[in-house]
């Protein structure tokens, strides 16, 4: 039986969030906030089963993202045959752990290709907190320069709905200042807008902003 894909819905984000922690390896794109942000750019839709949620992207190329749910509870050979049969299907951003499970379940039927551009970047929290050693010297110098320039005017605060218009004006100015404010940067710009517009309906989203001399100088949004 094939999967029935429907548009993403804010109403189902709680049910989706309950399944996400069951997933053995979770790419950064797997959070609901990330999916919501990129749903138009990537033309995302999802299909629900009793134990898994499948997400399909139609852009930049049609593919299926890794399913969310308890991978240990799935008999992958019969599940993949039931959904996809003999036809070819392209999957993207599949963690190596899941790819190996599929390879073992259907030996000879799964073609694995490593995509360096799809790797997530992993950092040690302690390294980024302390920035010790020569590896982080440039970062330490930039931070020191920024703090000297900001002085007593520096203000760091958690993002709340009343800050979003101010932060969005900063985001627009930043995009205009880039050498090529199109392509990936423009797509990211639109994805951020999706999150800002739905902020009050995304209970897991959070962010931090910095003001210097009364003006937004930087911000970050975390898709939990």
List the keywords.
8 helices, Aminopeptidase, 4-stranded antiparallel sheet, alpha+beta, globular
Number of structural domains: 2
Averaging pLDDT over every residue, what do you get? 92
- Give the count of helical stretches: 8
Query: Strand fraction band?
Result: 15-25%
Q: What helical percentage do the residues reach? A: 25-40%
Largest sheet: 4 strands, antiparallel
Order of helices and strands, N to C?
EHHEEEHHHHEHHEE
In the CATH scheme, the class of the largest domain would be Alpha Beta
Determine the CATH topology of the largest domain.
Answer: Aminopeptidase
Q: Supply the helix-strand structural class.
A: alpha+beta
CATH superfamily of the largest domain: Gcn5-related N-acetyltransferase (GNAT)
Please provide the count of β strands.
Answer: 7
- Indicate the radius of gyration in whole angstroms: 21 Å
Strand order of the largest sheet: 1-2-3-4
Low confidence ranges = none
Tell me, what's the shape? globular
Q: Tell me which CATH architecture of the largest domain applies here.
A: 3-Layer(aba) Sandwich
Distance between the termini: 33 Å
What does this structure look like?
This protein is α+β, with helices and mostly antiparallel strands and 224 residues long. It has 8 helices and 7 strands; from the N terminus they run βααβββααααβααββ. It has 2 domains: 6-118, 3-Layer(aba) Sandwich (Aminopeptidase), CATH 3.40.630; 153-223, 3-Layer(aba) Sandwich (Aminopeptidase), CATH 3.40.630. 37% of the residues lie in helices and 18% in strands. Strands 1-2-3-4 form a 4-stranded antiparallel beta sheet, with no helix packed on it. A hairpin with a 3-residue loop joins β2 (45-48) and β3 (52-57). α2 (32-38) crosses α8 (183-197) and α7 (164-177) packs antiparallel against α8 (183-197). The longest helix is centred in the C-terminal third of the chain and has 15 residues, at 183-197. The protein is globular.
């Amino acid at each position: 039986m094939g999967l029935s894909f429907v548009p993403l819905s804010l109403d189902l984000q709680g049910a989706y969030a309950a399944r996400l922690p069951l997933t053995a390896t979770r790419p950064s794109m797997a959070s609901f906030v990330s999916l919501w942000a990129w749903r138009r750019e990537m033309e995302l839709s999802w299909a629900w089963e009793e134990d898994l949620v499948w997400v399909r992207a139609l852009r930049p190329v049609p593919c299926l993202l890794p399913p969310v749910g308890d991978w240990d509870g799935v008999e992958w050979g019969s599940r993949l045959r039931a959904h996809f049969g003999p036809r070819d299907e392209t999957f993207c951003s599949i963690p190596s752990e899941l790819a190996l499970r599929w390879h073992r379940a259907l030996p000879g039927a799964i073609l694995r290709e490593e995509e360096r551009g799809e790797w997530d970047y992993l950092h040690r929290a302690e390294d980024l907190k302390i920035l010790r050693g020569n590896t982080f010297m440039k970062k330490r110098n930039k931070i020191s320069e920024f703090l000297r320039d900001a002085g007593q005017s520096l203000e760091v605060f958690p993002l709340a709905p009343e800050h979003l218009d101010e932060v969005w004006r900063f985001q627009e100015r930043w995009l205009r200042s880039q050498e090529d404010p199109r392509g990936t940067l423009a797509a990211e710009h639109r994805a951020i807008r999706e999150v800002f517009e739905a902020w009050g309906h995304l209970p897991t989203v959070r962010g931090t902003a910095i003001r210097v001399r009364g003006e937004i100088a930087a911000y970050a949004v975390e898709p939990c």
